[in-house]
Amino acid sequence: MDNILKEGKAKGVSVRKVRVSYGAVHVIRELDFEIAPGEFIVLLGASGCGKSTLLSVIAGLRDVSGGQIWIGDENVTWHEPKDRDIGMVFQSYALYPQMTVRGNLSFGLRMTGADKAVIDRRVTEAAEILQLTALLERKPRQLSGGQRQRVAIGRALVRHAGVFLFDEPLSNLDAKLRTELRGELKRLHKQLGTTMIFVTHDQIEALTLADRIAVMEGGVIRQIGTPKEIYRHPQNRFVAGFIGSPSMNFFDGEVQVRGAEATFVGRGFELSLTGYKFATATPIPGKATLGLRPEHVGTRLTGQSLFHASSPIVSAEPMGAETLLWGRLGQDPLSIRVDTLQGFDEASHITFEIDPALVSLFDAQSGQRL
Questions:
Q1: What average pLDDT does the structure give for the chain?
Q2: What are phi and psi of 98, to 5 degrees?
Q3: 189-231, pLDDT tens digit by residue?
Q4: 196 contacts: CB under 8 Å, gap ≥ 6
Q5: What's the CA gap between 235 and 72, in Å, rounded?
Q6: Does 65 have pLDDT greater than 60?
């Protein structure tokens, strides 16, 4: 393990005005962003948003239509994958069924002509880190799904690459195994300090693993930031609606400014915006959309001078430790996430409060955060 730490040197990745097009179809639209050495960044988005294409471009498995890819201080845009100092883990395990775990881990190094002593040491170290030591003489058919994926990760790890790329490596696993592997990947990154780029459509994976998340839509990055920034301060309505489960509540209305006080006027309710941090120094009146996460609707009343309302409970959706209640705010539906032990699922009404500091406001036309 110590030797891996010493020999493997994390490298930064620079994506510079990268475009990928197929005729008139633009899969990636001139992306620009930087990944620091040792950073764990997650490319998050729905199917078809361009995240896997971007990973393939970084890996050298797909050509760019324009722009450059730099790894460390080297322009690798037209380098072969083997010359980019990367290790890659795919969605499918892609293990050789006739080889043992040891054989799968060592195969890439043997193909490069590495010294046998070096191969044995690296395989032993990777097996220790990934808890595969007792499985080295087994074949893939004798392993569980989680064990096979650890072998796939180990096969990349023994390369001592500057950058590791993961293309939805957990999507074929059941929920319990995904949770376990998430924890192992997070531990592995902390232990080795390597640069990792991870593609997923699962926001829980993104929020759990990432140092920063790049949320993608239609071949562009809609926001890049820490999990806390993405969750608490989405920069546009798309990100606000995509992140969070259950999804954010949205209410159409307008921002009205009277003197120094701003108010959101919705359909059948008015919410003072005192305490809300606007993106501009002075609130700008106009049509807007208010976003409110179900977990930010307060049901344990604080007695502070917040917005208070009550609503009949239209329906309740038990989710184990939590329950999703459906009520109304003014004339619009409102989802509220509560602790199941509070017993609201058996009540007919609920009284709640809203803290303006926890809401999000978006311009009705552009969708950008106000």
A1: 92
A2: -85, -10
A3: 998 899 999 999 999 999 999 999 999 999 999 999 999 999 9
A4: 39, 40, 41, 163, 164, 165, 166, 185, 189
A5: 30
A6: yes
* Residue-wise DSSP of 271-327: EE-TT---SSSS---EEEEEEE-GGGEE-S---SS-EEEEEE--EEEEETTEEEEEE
- The mean pLDDT value for 330-348 works out to 91
pTM: 0.92
Other Cβ atoms less than 10 A from the Cβ of 352: the count is: 22
Angle at 200 between CA 43 and CA 17, to 5 degrees: 25
The helix/strand/coil state of 335 is strand
- For the chain, domains (ranges, CATH) are 2-232 (3.40.50.300), 247-363 (2.40.50.100)
Q: Are the beta carbons of 105 and 99 closer than 8 angstroms?
A: no
- Token couple for 47: 């199917």
> Residue 102 is inside which H or E element, if any?
helix 101-111
Query: What value does the mean pLDDT take over residues 347-368?
Result: 94
